[in-house]
Design goal:
This protein is α/β, with parallel strands linked by helices and 319 residues long. It has a single domain, classed as Divalent-metal-dependent TIM barrel enzymes (TIM Barrel). Helices cover 39% and strands 18% of the residues. The chain contains 11 helices and 14 strands. The protein has helices at 13-21, 43-54, 72-76, 81-97, 131-134, 147-168, 194-203, 215-220, 226-235, 266-275, 298-316, and strands at 2-8, 26-30, 59-64, 102-106, 118-119, 125-126, 128-130, 171-175, 183-184, 187-188, 209-214, 239-243, 253-255, 281-283. The two termini are 15 Å apart. 42% of the residues are buried.
Length: 319
């Protein structure tokens, strides 16, 4: 198990130096700032990205998310679906051939939702969600979509793209819908439960069809046991990497927390990852905004990542 940093889109000297100085081994780029002409990423840009990261003794272990405009028609079954499928196939082939082993994405055409922020320890600001407040928001797309058609679109995509991933030797993982509620803005949030993820991995059983395990979002799922889900998917080698963050509770209402102050026992969670033989990396993901921190949250991320590194050391050394 290893510690990494993510949640930035440009591998600048400042970010990479920060990652290396604070003891990370892995880097994940989220919404990488790459040219997207024609709705796809190009091999030479991806190779340059990986080499830039490696100059600092780090591994570019995953890319997370392309622009939603690359595949919104795939998610929604729109008229440009087939064109977007071909572009996404080309992008995933390029990611693999550039030497980047994991590609993470999501099934949220309306992206992540939050409502009025919360105040946590000593006034730090954290994102929050209240389903009652969110229900009052308008449709995000042209109409309301049904759960059945969204599943049909997802199943079509998984059956198309997983054989490509197998051929190229890359692993694909889907982030859960955040927040994991039934519907937002007229769009069903499919990946909101333990059962939904069991269904997902059975659409096309393959090592290449995996999970971008955002522990924070899995912890938000109403009525679910986060420890059981870690164990179940960890034992089946479906967890590609982990967003190791904590939350106050489950939907319909929650707020994000410091890594050591939410409702999840993070030592217990880390112990289970170790017990099931998880050999991937953890990133800090979202962090509360603290006193005099940067917009990206350098102080908060240093704290969270140090906590992750300490937890890894404790459980791997028998603590």
């Amino acid at each position: 198990m290893r510690a990494g940093f993510g949640q930035f889109n440009e591998p600048s000297r400042e970010y990479l130096q920060f990652c290396a100085q604070f003891g990370a081994t892995d880097v994940l780029l989220n919404n990488a700032n790459l040219p997207g002409a024609g709705g796809r990423w190009q091999l030479h840009d991806l190779v340059k990205l990986r080499l830039t990261v490696e100059q600092y003794g780090l591994s570019l272990s995953a890319l997370e998310n392309v622009p939603v405009s690359f595949y919104d028609q795939i998610m929604l079954g729109g008229p440009m679906r087939d064109e977007q499928v071909e572009n996404m196939i080309a992008t995933i082939r390029s990611v693999a051939r550039a030497g980047i082993p994991i590609f993470g994405y999501h099934w949220m055409p309306s992206m992540v939702w939050r409502t009025t922020p919360a105040r946590v320890r000593c006034g730090a600001a954290a994102t929050a969600f209240d389903y009652d407040e969110a229900r009052r928001m308008p449709l995000t797309h042209d109409r309301e979509y049904t759960e059945e058609e969204m599943w049909r679109n997802l199943e079509y995509w998984i059956r198309v793209i997983t054989p490509i991933a197998e051929e190229e030797g890359i692993r694909l993982g889907i982030h859960p819908c955040d927040p994991p509620v039934p519907v937002l803005g007229g769009i069903p949030q499919l990946l909101r439960s333990f059962q939904a993820y069991k269904r997902l991995v059975e659409i096309y059983p393959s090592d290449s069809n995996g999970i971008e395990f955002c522990q924070g979002t899995f912890s938000e799922m109403e009525g679910e046991d986060i420890y059981e889900m870690i164990r179940y998917f960890g034992e089946r080698r479906k967890i590609l990497y982990v967003h190791f963050r904590n939350v106050s509770g489950q939907v319909p209402k929650f707020h994000e927390e410091f890594v050591n102050t939410g409702y999840v026992d993070m030592h217990k969670a880390m112990t289970i990852y170790h017990q099931v033989g998880f050999d991937g990396f953890f990133i800090d993901d979202h962090v509360p905004q603290t006193f005099q921190d940067t917009e990206w949250g350098h102080r908060g991320r240093a704290f969270a990542n140090g906590y992750i590194q300490a937890m890894i050391e404790v459980v791997t050394k028998g603590g």
